[in-house]
Amino acid sequence: MNNIEKAKERLKNGASLVLYDGKEFIEENDKGLSPLLKLLSEKNDLSRFCAADKIIGKAAAMLFALLKIKNVYGEVLSSKAIPILEKYGIKYSFGTVTDSIKNRYGTGICPMEQTVEGIDDADTALKAIKEKIKTMRMNNMKKLGFGLMRLPVLDSNDPSKIDIPQAEKMVDKFLERGFTYFDTAYMYHDFKSEETAKTQPQSESHEASQTQPQTSYAVRPNRRHHRRLEYADKSNMLVARNWLNIGFMLFAIVGVILWTQMDDRTIANVLLIIGVVLKIAEVCIRLFKK
Questions:
Q1: For 184-201, how does the pLDDT look when each residue is reduced to its tens digit (9 = 90+)?
Q2: Alpha helices (runs of H) in the chain, residue ranges in sequence order
């Protein structure tokens, strides 16, 4: 039994894609083009492997060409994949041949096949496939948000000490996938969370750095437009308001206690007046310093 036959046998065990080089099996279980895109992203030399796949359409054939695999088997093979396999010198065999690959719901043509229609170059096809996947994710998951309330920290007792490299990787990946919704408030992580999200993507190799804005955005889904995250000096204002509120509560509590316990209420009245003044100051900051 040769390598491709052994890969075919392994495919019957439930994997969606099996690679075999005579010594090592590589099995993937995800659907669609995900296994091939994953293998491409790992950038390993797979030229010695043959591959058995559940379905090989034109888009998959392009990806096999980029992986430099020279022998493939498809339980279902698209007739439009055959010219691509022949162009790139890939030996092929199949269970059945079909004119077109349906989408997962059987209601129409696979969107990846539609994407590479009219494309005969594998590199061009890969770019088109990635762009299509990004668009589909945006259409299907517009309201997916990145929460900035609980970012990774270096010290569990100090929320302001954010693990910046790890947080940047998370933000990069989020933007790379085409999403822009950041759920944030400036008091998170002792006023440091928005500074972290504001950092532009670190790796210029990410598509996000080429197609996304250079700063993070928060999205208002109901209004269908973006607003830039505000990074004004609101943290100092919030600290001042907190201290004024603390002072108000202390003076009010002590004033009320003295007012109820003492016959001479002069001191109590003074303390209550000071508390009211502090509260008025806090309200003024809130109203006029937005």
A1: 776 788 877 777 666 444
A2: 3-11, 34-42, 58-67, 81-87, 111-115, 122-140, 164-176, 193-198, 207-211, 234-261, 266-288
